[in-house]
Amino acid sequence: MLTPVGVLDREKQLGVVAELTSIVAKAARAPTLAQRTWVLSYESPEGGWGINGHANTRADIALAAREEIAALASRK
């Protein structure tokens, strides 16, 4: 998992890791897979998110996410 620096506090880290582990085990239809699933967390420095040839900042990514959410909501 890759996140911008400082986005996840400890509680959020624990929640994301638990959720990703659950998703993997459910998708594989193998509950015991959770015991062998590793989730590696990395933090990207500001400007370290390269998407479509552009080094994005946290603000760039947040704006893109908001725009995508709005586009998805308008399709409903």
Overall description:
- The chain has 76 residues and is of the alpha+beta class.
- It has a single domain, classed as Macrophage Migration Inhibitory Factor, CATH 3.30.429.
- The chain contains two helices and four strands, in the order E-H-E-E-E-H.
- Strand 3 (49-51) and strand 4 form a beta hairpin.
* Average predicted confidence as pLDDT: 91
Task: Choose one word for the global shape.
Answer: extended
Content-based structural category: alpha+beta
The span between the termini is 29 Å
The major β-sheet equals: 2 strands, parallel
Secondary-structure map:
Elements: E1 2-4, H1 10-27, E2 42-44, E3 49-51, E4 54-56, H2 58-74
Parallel strand pairs: 1-2
Antiparallel strand pairs: 3-4
Features:
Macrophage Migration Inhibitory Factor, two-stranded antiparallel ribbon, single chain, two-stranded parallel ribbon, alpha+beta, extended, 76 residues
Brief digest:
By secondary structure, this protein is an alpha+beta fold.
